[in-house]
Amino acid sequence: MADKHYRSLVKAISWRVTGTVDTLIISYLITGKMKYALTISGVELCTKIGLYYVHERVWEKLTFGRIKPAAKDKTNYEI
Predict the structure, then answer these.
(1) How far apart are CA 14 and CA 19, in angstroms?
(2) Cα–Cα distance between 71 and 6 in angstroms, integer?
């Protein structure tokens, strides 16, 4: 079953919100300045949503690690 494009986009956004909170906290702990932490995490949020979306769509096209569904038996007629 293939994912729709909007599913990949929603997954990218939800994952990045989680990752951005992490980046915000780490940036604040390192710099001690909330302005820098917000700037770093804001830029990171935008760029990584795009990167994740492209990553998901590329992997959706790859057959690596997938099992082909079994072909239906054409002689089995259901009434």
Answers:
(1) 9
(2) 29
